[in-house]
Hints:
- The chain contains 11 helices and no strands.
- The protein is mainly alpha-helical.
- The longest helix has 32 residues, at 3-34.
Amino acid sequence: MMKRQAFFRGVVDTLPMVLAAIPFGLLFGMLAPASGVSAWVAICLSALVFAGSAQYVAMGLLAAGTPAALIVLTTFIVNLRHLLYSLAMLVPLRHLRRPKKVALSFFLTDETFVTFNQRLQRVLPEEQRVAYYLGSAVFMYGNWQLCTWLGLWAGSSLTGIESLGLEFAMVTAFLAMMMPMFRHRKNIVSAVIAFVLAWFTRDWPHKTGIIFSVIVAAVVASTLSFLETDDD
């Protein structure tokens, strides 16, 4: 498989994730006008931040008149998982120079991380990894920009969008990414622990309960060595 083929393989493999993310992106654009967020702000968030959960949090805080410093801190906490993603990506992309790694890191999303690692487990030659990664990442990025624009148009043209309960799109998108991981017992145990802790810490300020729950769940699951006997 040549580099061009690897690029388009990344596109094809990411298609299910893109389909799940479409309503998520549309919803962001739709809710921006209803939340009092200017269209140009929403467009800049999608183009320069490119992080769904962070954009939703930032949109809510902007609408509430929250100080910029607190918005930055809160979105940083919400997206701390990307630090773990970055550390994991250092191994398969260790042959790249630092400037290229920094450039590629901008496009790292939950969907591309999952897609890339699933393909990596099925063997992805080193010389094809960047092309495959870019196929997935560029597809996700382009889709997110288009959905933001379409959502903004729909949000400014239609009324009552905020009352339709479309927020469920975010849940389905993350479930689509998580399901392949539940083949392993350690992942199941980690998810259960994280869910229970997140429920009890749901009232912690600035989503810190989520970060706490994820860290504790990962640490606890990693110490349960007997769970490593499950078959792949």
